[in-house]
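Quick look at the format.
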Amino acid sequence: MARNGVPVIDMLRDDGLAAEIVNACEEWGIFRILNHGVPPELLAEMKTVAAELFNLPEQIKRRTVSSESGKGYITFNPSSPYLEGFSIDDVSSPDDFCDRLEASPHQREIIYKYIKSIRDLAGLVGRKLMEGFGVAGDLFDGWNFQMRFNKYHFCPESVGSCGVFLHSDPSFLTILHDDDDVSGLQVVDKDSGELTPVDPVPGTIAVNVGDIAKAWSNGRFCNVKHRVWCLEPKTRYSIVLFALGPKDKKVEAPPELVDSEHPRLYVPIDINEYRNVRSAKRLHTGDTLELFRAASSDETFLDF
């Protein structure tokens, strides 16, 4: 039997917050957070701006198309026939994205405010992960972050079909502002293998663990597999911040997480190399990590 729902964590709790977050990453790979510090009016305004951008003419939206997989504007394709999306591929420099879409001063203001607020939240979660393992420092200092806007064009014909196929995220952490009104996110319970709904909880933000976090945690974290399923014929929006990885170094488990009982499982990982291998091998549910196993922990070696 699947467990009874993903954890909901109050970020204002006085004691044990870091341990609770670490435990949620290990046991579920996803959790919801209350009292996250992002103003509710900003969440609502950001959703409105996203809807406005998606309503732009097709020729304007296509100005943000990228030749790189997972970046820029995407539109409907056979694997995601109802999904449309934009991305700001470096949240420290959103001006080009706004310029290409001819964003209004008000839209720019909301995007900039939202980026700062959600990036601050990611930083707090990262520091709590470090604290939970007794590691000093700011985990995401100097990291690349990407923000993606998603619109699911669900209709009567799409009910009972897939909006996004089952996958794990190739990033470290995902901060998800999902749709308060439309369900559809489902995750795989690592204990039972069953799909568990992650229903909307107004006022909360979801956080899920990606492949890179599993490597960083030396295998402790669950890089949760998830999908979006169409349950009703309603348009669904989500706004996602991805903590991708460091700008100028590889990701590896800190020394505090490696010992005789927990030998190093993975070689240091270059984020761009990892994403390229994952795309080339078409391994979208975490299996790419097996190609980055340390020789001492497994006989699997890089072959690409």
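Next, a different chain entirely:
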Amino acid sequence: MKKQEQEKQMLFSVIRSVLAALFGVQSDKNRYQDFKQPTAWPFIITGIVMIVMMVGAIIAVAQWATASQ
């Protein structure tokens, strides 16, 4: 059970770090902690997923806004 909690905390930590970095509000303390991680892949994959979701949301809102005219 402890391993599951650590994995869950790591997932939330990665998501929080990626969101903070995307919006430009990442603190130096958190950034240094992120760079201490053994691999960058969780950050890369989460970043790509977040960017795809953000672009999809922008496209959906744009289509909705132009369709109502």
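The mean pLDDT is 89.

See the schema section for token definitions.
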